[in-house]
UniProtKB/TrEMBL annotation:
InterPro entries per record: Leu-rich_rpt, LRR_dom_sf, Malectin-like_Carb-bd_dom
Protein name: Malectin-like domain-containing protein
Keywords in alphabetical order: Leucine-rich repeat, Membrane, Repeat, Signal, Transmembrane, Transmembrane helix
Primary location class: membrane
Malectin-like domain mapped to chain residues: 55-386
Record-linked PANTHER family: DI-GLUCOSE BINDING PROTEIN WITH LEUCINE-RICH REPEAT DOMAIN-CONTAINING PROTEIN, OS07G0107800 PROTEIN-RELATED
Amino acid sequence: MWGDLSIALVCSAISLDCLSKLHHCYLIDLKLYILSADKIDSHVLSSIIDFTIRIDCGGSSNFTNEFNQTWIADQFYTGGIKVQLPDQQKFKFSQEKTLRSFPITGGKKNCYEVGVPNGVYYVRMFFVYDNYDNETHAPSFDVSIEGTVVFSWGSEAWTEDNIKFGAYSDVFTPIEDSVATICFYSIGTDSPLVGALELVQVDPNCYNKVLHENILLVNYGRFTGGSSSFGAGMSKETDITGRAWDTDLDFTQSAANRVVLTTDQGIKNANRAPNYFPMYLYQRAHTLSYEDTLEFLLPIDPKLDYMLWFHFAEIDPKISASRQRVFDIVVSGKIVFHNVDIYKEVGNYAVYDLQFTARNLTNATLSVKLVPHTGAPLISGLENYALLPKEVPTDPIDVKAMRAIKRSLLIPERMGWNGDPCAPQNWDAWEGVTCNHGESKEILILTHLVLSNQGLQGSIDSEITGLKHLLSLNLSNNLIKGGIPEGLGKGLLRVVDLSFNQLSGPIPRSLSSSNLRTVLLNGNRLSGEVSEALYSIGVTGGYVNLSDNDALCGVPSLPACSLLWEGSHMSIGSKVAIAFGVIAGVALTLVAAYIIIKRKNSEDYKFGLPHKLASSGRGTRYNRQKSRPKYEGDSSPYVRNIFNRSGY
């Protein structure tokens, strides 16, 4: 008998450069567990490597707690402030004594963005208010993970105990883009907050692989039949997946005749993949002092479906044969498991688990009863998870483009450009962004981007051309510098307003797209030839304004372009002429050097160039022509094109 063997190799500090697609370096626990039950074989002996990071939100230093867990100082947040809670002595654990608050001045949406390996994760957070800001009420806010709202902290969630002492909430979620994104969204003008954040990588096949089906599991009750809570970070009896198990006293309706059974004997098939339910869970059990119904009442949101996991192990030495303890499991008045006989199924001191999904619920309380046939019912633990469908995300190409635009335009923190630009859908999208469903309805796309009068001082990143579904772009009345990216205007774009900035350089050919109906580039520093195709947008019923750009040329109402220009770039002829000019210059230099050397040899130290070389050459005629550009009058009628300096 190997019993409960657990070997851990811990690397407290690791550079994540060796992990692909990760861009952060921080302290983690990287553990290799080897777990076994009563014998060694490929089905019982199993191993798991998990990536774990624990963030002390608001904390200023790293620490290791009494359970040998490494916590790192607060980082990976997009904004907010650190808060020291006023009455820290009443909190048992160090990570509960500080928090990060996100004032509304930093935008309605703020996030933690943590680089992690792709996989399935157990995410646990601690929330506490404790009236740290002397306001009249605890803040109302939503919490999302990977773009899906998982928690709503409002007046109902903030019970008196939660306000004073805090509460933990947890979720199982897949992470598929190498970044765990946990966001907090202000309701009204309240300041969201969080006290601690944990991410523990778990077996991707856990809980019947339901997490492969775009489902998140939100904990609505996880408890042990024992007399006290236990689990990761809460007791020496741990759970390698990070789960914490509450006592069932808050859920049971049969406390008067409650009996807790305990054993130190090993439990067969505990700690096995893929769920790794801990042995300690099965070494405790809740039964009754006489034959009676054991009932639990679980608070739920009836709009969702729920996955129930029942955990049993027959640890009563008085039970030595089948049919000595038999009971039904009744959920919301319906028998879901009939004649449950633990001993008959697995014998004693062995794991026996059952799983049931409750659907189409109507009440805010889920009733679970163990109704006896023979003997008093018994249970080691119960888990209740809401099956939360993953919300529709934004097109990854749009997300990539918007993050590049955020960096290049120097988007201020107050605009709240954090997390997913469009999701969750019941939150406001990023300020200035309009999103819609794509054709498949399984993805969100950006259709409008309006950032006028925001004081932006950056440049336009070329990634903006990746917004293939964009219909309208307005960046007017800012201080944006640099050029207009080639490719902008292609696709579905119909309106481009870049007016009154500090843009320079040529107008790209892509802004002559036949889809465009409005192009406003006035009030900039653009130069070069304007294409006939761009001009024709105004002729065919659209609207074009290029006024207040001193160096544009080539269409009616603008000066004729010199030979230097062809389209928006230097012409081939001008390039050839310049090349010949350079060659001629080099030749002149060589001739001059030869003459100087000859005269030096003849003791003639005059350095004047020969008269014929100084007064002839095509380069001279070319330069005269270049210095006197030819202007053409505007013979075309005025057709919704504005090219003068009057503005619009």
